[in-house]
Task: inverse folding
């Protein structure tokens, strides 16, 4: 089971037209093995979601691209959207977070997809 980004965020704010969203992470958020769950992890997971183009990627495909995700600092990630999307903060619970190191260790030929079916890699 993986937690959504909403569960590890302490806040999500947007600019006036909802085209730029800044998400702040809880400094206490870690994976079960103690690895930090930081902004780089969030960027890796969202990039992976968009690149895989399956699951809930349809919710985000029209509003963001991996190139526009910016790691501001260890606990802050900025999503510069392709177009304004006012309910973006409501979709954060659908951005699931896997431990990149654990996925890489078990990547196989499908970037960890098969392994993740019956193994926990999430927050």
Result:
């Amino acid at each position: 089971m993986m937690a959504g980004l909403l569960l590890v965020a302490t806040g999500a704010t947007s600019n006036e037209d909802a085209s730029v969203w800044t998400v702040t992470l809880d400094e206490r958020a870690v994976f079960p093995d103690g690895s930090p769950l930081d902004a780089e992890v969030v960027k890796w997971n969202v990039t992976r979601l968009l690149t895989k183009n399956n699951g809930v990627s349809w919710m985000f495909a029209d509003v963001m691209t991996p190139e526009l995700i910016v790691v501001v600092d260890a606990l802050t990630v900025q999503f510069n959207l392709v177009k304004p999307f006012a309910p973006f903060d409501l979709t954060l619970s659908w951005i699931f977070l896997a431990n990149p190191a654990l996925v890489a260790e078990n990547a196989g030929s499908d970037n960890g997809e098969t392994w993740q079916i019956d193994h926990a890699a999430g927050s």
In short: The first strand starts at residue 9 and ends at 14. The first helix runs from residue 5 to 8. The chain has a mean pLDDT of 89.
